[in-house]
Specification:
Number of domains: 2
CATH topology of the largest domain: Rossmann fold
Number of helices: 10
Strand order of the largest sheet: 1-11-8-7-5-6
CATH superfamily of the largest domain: NAD(P)-binding Rossmann-like Domain
Oligomer: single chain
Bound molecules: nicotinamide-adenine-dinucleotide
Strand content: 15-25%
Helix content: 40-55%
Structural class: alpha/beta
CATH class of the largest domain: Alpha Beta
Number of strands: 11
């Protein structure tokens, strides 16, 4: 068997068009547009690229993009003051503080300072609590994107499937597991301390890998016909060249899976599209 390659780039482009069309409509109705504020502390090169891409996508969707670049030595108090200023700004509907933050700043404290209604990353405990208890909330972008791809490929019905989520982070693994549970999957969360992980993964109808280990998941781990979503983004350096690989050994797993996301071009583009979707949701709720 050779898997269907899930085109996250095309799916995300469609989603972004839908968001842009709705922004247009709301602009006509209200005379206002959603505003997304992104705060970057320090000069981490990868974060700078992410922030630039987010700003570009925001403008392309017809929204207002506000970028705040603060020096690496910004204190936690100063950063929280900036967040509070954005909480009180009527033109800002979404606030995203780019992670990771410099070591002297508590990410937990900064996330807690963001107003839950503007928390477009969905990391605030209020939003994770709502997700856990099945209430409408702003859902973290990456798992939200994974779920949209899964529902598309499985015709909308995930009920009764055994989903194995590799990784238990607050930004991907845990919210992914909650979303799959809400879709009536039987969910197993595996992590770095899980015993005989290959045998566990082999039971999965749906596998979501979010561990950050290059090509950890081998063909022999995957049940024939499983749907595989690869969240991992790992940089592998070979001689002078660097390339990105996922947490799944793509070529070999594609021989047995029924559908699989590539890296790059799978989950990655969905994350930004879902950020725009969350910003639109936050804007709509503010009207
Ligand atoms: P994290 O480091 O916070 O968490 C990794 C998780 O994997 C942990 O829960 C750990 O227990 C588990 N783990 C580590 N080694 C393992 C092993 N050998 N076997 C089983 N489990 C293991 O990472 P994260 O923030 O959740 O991100 C995971 C990956 O997804 C990274 O590669 C990251 O770059 C990528 N990512 C991609 C996007 C995107 O937009 N595509 C977004 C977020 C994260």
């Amino acid at each position: 068997m050779s898997a269907h390659i899930i085109d996250g780039k095309a799916f995300a482009a469609k989603l972004r068009e839908q968001v842009a069309a709705e922004v247009d409509l709301l602009k006509e109705e209200t005379g206002r547009v959603p505003g997304l504020a992104v705060v970057l502390v320090g000069e981490d090169p990868a974060s700078q690229v992410y922030v630039r891409n987010k700003g570009k996508a925001t403008v392309e969707a017809g929204m207002e993009s506000l970028e705040f670049r603060l020096p690496a030595e910004t204190s936690e108090t100063e950063l929280i003051a900036k967040v509070e200023e954005l909480n009180n700004d009527q033109n800002v509907h979404g606030i995203l503080v780019q992670l990771p933050l410099p070591k002297h700043i508590s990410e937990e404290a900064v996330i807690a300072a963001i107003h839950p209604d503007k928390d477009v990353d969905g990391f605030h405990v209020m939003n994770s609590g709502k997700l856990m208890t099945g209430q409408a909330s702003l859902v973290p972008c990456t798992p939200q994107g994974c779920l949209l791809l899964l529902k598309d490929v499985l015709g909308g019905d995930l009920s009764g499937k055994h989903a194995v989520v590799l990784g238990r982070s607050n930004i991907v693994g845990k919210p992914m597991a909650m979303l799959l549970l809400a879709e009536h999957c039987t969910v197993t969360i595996a992590h770095s301390r899980t015993r005989d992980i290959a045998a566990l993964v082999r039971q999965a109808d749906i596998l979501v890998a979010a561990v950050g280990r290059s090509e950890l998941v081998k063909q022999s781990w995957v049940k024939p016909g499983a749907v595989v979503i690869d969240v991992g983004i790992n940089r592998v350096v070979e001689g002078e060249k660097a390339r990105l690989v996922g947490d799944v050994a793509f070529e070999e797993v594609a021989q047995v899976a029924s559908a699989i996301t590539p890296v790059p071009g799978g989950v990655g583009p969905m994350t930004i599209a879902c950020l725009l979707r969350n910003t639109l949701t936050a804007f709509r709720a503010s009207l």
